[in-house]
Here is the input.
Amino acid sequence: MNISEEIKKRRTFGIISHPDAGKTTLTEKLLLYGGAIQEAGAVKSNKIKKSATSDFMEIERQRGISVATSVIAFTYKNKKINILDTPGHKDFAEDTFRTLTAVDSVIVVIDVSKGVEEQTEKLVEVCRMRNIPIIVFINKLDREGKDAFDLLDEVEKKLGLNVTPLSIPIGMGYDFRGIYNIWKQNIKLFKDEKKQMIGEKKIFNSIEDPVFKNIIGDEKHKTLIEELELIQGVYPHFNKQKFLESKIQPVFFGSALNNFGIEELLDCFIEIAPEPLPKFTNERTVKPEEKKFTGFVFKIHANMDPKHRDRLAFVKIVSGKFERNIPYLHVRQDKKIKFSSPNAFFAEKKEIIDVSFPGDIVGLHDTGNFKIGDTLTSGEKLQFKGIPSFSPEYFRYINNEDPMKAKQLSKGINQLMDEGVAQLFNINFNGRKVIGTVGALQYEVIQYRLLHEYGAKCSFENLKVHKACWIEGDVKSNSYKEFIRIKQKFLAKDKDDNLVFLADSAFSLQMTIEKYDTLKFHFTSEF
Ligand code: G4P
Here is the structure.
């Protein structure tokens, strides 16, 4: 098979949701269809339960499991499907944002009774910013929930999407009887009270099929016809091109737990989801079918073995063919590195591979060479764009609690920051280090890991910061100079030495933005 055939086969996507909407269950059912696992329950949930915020073992367990489930690949109808796992826990949201730089499309899972939840809103916003094609899956139809049309409305309003249903439920909750598949124009009913199983299908090709009418009864039949008319009248027709351009988002209904509506979703997904897409670098756009290899690191995972401190860097292949034992250019460090045991991921296992193609993810053993966002190429000096940092929500000074271990602490902090665990800011006027995170749980992870992996003891001290803004402006201008002088107490440098303003309140931020209107205040590190 040549490269372009390999590219056409691949679909790399992520599943995002608010915790508990059913992401893990859906992943598992997709794997069952791909024949990658044989029984339900094989994919372990990688979520940290809310109650576990102080449980270090739970954090460690989570890290272990999420290595195994970071990428799950399987084959379905001759397509190679790569699912990139995203942590559901909000304290790990930054990890999810970064993973979204490596997907070509996403499936958003929504719980029918809860509707659009907070975490879903944030994640979808990031997808929209990046124009990632989105498919919506409304889950748990076996439970009583919101009316399908109200929910479609809510999805449009809260998520800012332009939806078009490609399936519609027949009944809901106790009364949930099946799915009308608008995409394929057929109907699938639950076989019996025990719900649908793979391989036991009851499909009708016409809504007027007398057996179908008889099973669901006149009232449901009438409702279904009315609903289909409503859909035709109100929602735009599905158009693949518009979907790929992120102008329209198809919606499916089902129940992941009962394996209902999943096959419809998967069959449509492999037809409409994009194959690996071109990606921007600072220099030019790289197309997947280019002969020469390029890729970028979107995730780094510390190994479970603290004695060896080796890590796995996850690289998304953007173009060409990645081969084992071939030297590639690590652009930031300007040096060639060979990888003797690159890992590929299949179902829950990882194994050493010889070649990988665009869309695939390879796991490279790393002893500290990589940072999130690093580019690897066959020799060209390129830097892929699009792994920005967002303003953290929490800011704390980090203090060294053991003067003998200052070196270890500094090394540990740097390595954890390279992994993207949190963001480091160096305060200009007092030289102190501030760690910024998206969730409070991160501080426990950092403290624990610094101690256990680097032997360094630290403590944290709250710092009142409302938001971090990256500053852009003419350094020679008077207003820039004045800003630096007046706001010196609130200025820091990020890991790449960019100037960051740590505003202590929404009010002071607003006042500062108004006063220094020749400067630009950015809310992400990439602009
Ligand atoms: P997450 O990864 O998005 O956090 O969600 P997960 O799949 O773990 O699902 C959260 C809970 O919702 C699980 O129950 C799961 O069984 C249930 N669930 C998923 N899909 C459906 C569905 O279609 N219908 C119904 N009724 N429930 C569904 P749990 O009790 O938290 O965990 P477990 O003990 O069942 O594993």
